[in-house]
Write a structure and sequence with these properties.
- This protein is an alpha/beta fold and 528 residues long.
- 42% of the residues lie in helices and 15% in strands.
- It has a 6-stranded antiparallel sheet.
- Strand 1 and strand 2 form a beta hairpin.
- It is globular.
- It starts with a helix and ends in a 10-residue tail after the last helix.
């Protein structure tokens, strides 16, 4: 198995012509597979004390979503501490982090060969390569020169990819320090945006673009999509990253205390004000103020907030003096604020002040291919929390996860995985705990109620008759008539079940009922 010069030339050409890093990684693994015979290969990048899979071959798709804490995996630790390739004896007692993750081998791996290559660039560890073969002695005869060459090629590929990512981010915020620390903080604190779907690529581009600016940002999206995560990401990638990020849940503020919470108060300003208190604007001075659920603020509070945004001036309750603050505001809502403005529930001037740059987070159902990655991420979290040696998702579980509508989005997926992991761990008879459909009973039952086959989950479209414009009918009237027809037909198909109808229309139930009310459709009784 010598390194073929033709193979290396083709690999070099592919690296130059590749459009993105993922192409480079896949080409690298494909080249390695022709040189080293094995069942599984993985390229992982070092992120602080965590290894992040960048590309895999022969492992289950959810592996890409996992984040391996090095200290919890002795084999990974041994590879990271080494300067040369590490071969693990087939009789090694160290647990294999890929047990249950090798495709077509759902249980404990049989006696097999395992090897890891630490990837160094300029004497600094930047990642590792791992190889697994079901032949116990598959890697014994590989020469040191050959492995050193492969490690050098892989390290160079990884370094090029990391450098291109770094240059791309510098280009979007050239006036900021690049700060590798920011990336490590994001990985360490769980602020990573996980997903490779087209919708998530677009979102990441928007976040990178606006993060460096001083603009106010309005984050829009359904409940559970991760609005707070985006706010943290915007702050960490801004010039204010070393200053406070102050969180305010507007929906939880008592109406009579909103002004005090935001702007502070002095002792004696009202009953119970027994000492001076700094408001959230003062605490966030120089940094970022995140106003979550901003659509829940009453109109009276909205006018006071508008003044602070317009002039950077705040006035604590009970005090005549004005304080000047330097605060960037990021707001978030699951409401349609434009519609709230039309309905008189939200000030138009505040809406425009907050939405200098609106960012819309896609719902989970619109993120094609991301569910497996997110499931892998949450599975690894659950494994650590439950103290399990290994936790994986059964192969027949992913079709259910992909078919479900996820009205609660990423947060609901996290909770489903957490509950299922706990149930599976209770009944486990092996160190490898496997999440099966039976552990997600509620989700499976919902799919069955919708008329989906439990053997092959899939969404069934609602049939509608051909839609034609009426004479003298405006676009708005035609749109509302079409929406009304779709809602009524879908409700009829689902026997008046609003939750099922919402899933059938790929929308949130709350949004559906609001639209139905506006269209004059009763939401208090079933429609037959």
């Amino acid at each position: 198995m010598a390194i073929n010069s033709f193979t290396l030339v083709e690999f070099a050409k592919a690296q130059v012509t590749s459009l993105d890093n993922q192409d480079r990684f896949e080409q690298l693994l494909q080249t390695l597979a022709t040189v080293i015979e094995c069942e599984a290969i993985a390229l992982l990048a070092l992120r602080g004390e965590v290894l992040k899979p960048l590309a895999i071959k022969g492992l289950t798709p959810d592996t890409l979503g996992r984040r391996f804490v090095i200290g919890e995996h002795p084999r990974f630790a041994a590879i990271c501490e080494a300067k040369e390739p590490v071969r693990f004896a087939s009789s090694s007692p160290l647990p294999d982090p890929y047990d249950g993750l090798v495709a077509d081998h759902p249980g404990d791996l049989p006696i097999h060969a395992c090897m890891g290559l630490p990837l160094y660039f300029a004497e600094r560890l930047i990642g590792i390569l791992t190889f697994d073969s079901l032949k116990p002695n598959a890697f014994d005869d590989l020469g040191q020169d050959k492995l050193d060459a492969l490690a050098a090629i892989a390290a160079a590929t990884l370094k090029i990819a990391l450098t291109l990512d770094e240059l791309e981010q510098r280009n979007s915020r050239s006036h900021l320090l690049m700060a590798e620390l920011s990336q490590e903080a994001i990985a360490r604190d769980g602020n990573e945006l996980i997903g490779d779907s087209q919708a998530m690529v677009k979102l990441k581009q928007e976040v990178n673009l606006v993060a460096a600016s001083p603009f106010s940002v309005l984050i829009q999206g359904e409940t559970g999509v991760g609005k707070e995560l985006i706010a943290r990401r915007l702050h960490l990638q801004s010039s204010r990253a070393d200053k406070p990020l102050v969180y305010v849940n507007c929906a939880a503020l008592p109406e009579n205390l909103i002004e005090s919470e935001l702007f502070g108060h002095v002792k004696g300003a009202f009953t119970g004000a027994d000492k001076n208190r700094a408001g959230k604007f003062v605490l966030a001075d120089g940094g970022t103020l995140f106003l979550d659920e901003v659509g829940e603020l009453p109109l009276a509070a909205q006018s006071k907030l508008l003044r602070a945004l317009q002039s950077n001036e705040i006035q604590p309750v009970g005090q005549d003096d004005i304080h000047y603050v330097d605060v960037r505001v990021i707001a978030a809502t699951n409401r349609d604020l434009a519609e709230e403005v039309n309905n008189g529930n939200f000030r138009a001037d505040l809406f425009h002040r907050l939405s200098v740059y609106p960012v819309t987070i896609p719902p989970l159902r619109a993120r094609n291919g991301d569910i497996a990655l997110l499931a892998g991420y949450f599975v690894e979290q659950s494994r650590r929390k439950l103290g399990l040696q290994q936790l994986k998702i059964a192969k027949d579980m992913l079709p259910y996860l992909n078919a479900y509508h996820w009205p609660g989005n990423v947060r609901e997926l996290e909770h489903v995985i957490s509950r299922a992991a706990l149930k599976a761990s209770v009944n486990a008879k092996s160190p490898i705990v496997i999440i099966n459909p039976i552990d997600c009973g509620e989700l499976v039952r919902e799919l069955a109620i919708d008329g989906t086959s439990s053997d092959e989950p899939k969404a069934s479209p609602i049939q509608t008759q051909q839609f034609l414009l009426k004479p003298d009918e405006s676009l708005k009237q035609a749109t509302e008539r079409f929406q009304s027809e779709m809602i009524r037909n879908t409700l009829t198909a689902h026997n008046g079940n609003w939750s099922a109808a919402a899933r059938g229309l790929n929308t949130d139930r709350a949004n559906l009922t609001r639209l139905a009310k506006r269209l004059g459709i009763s939401v208090t009784k079933q429609i037959s």
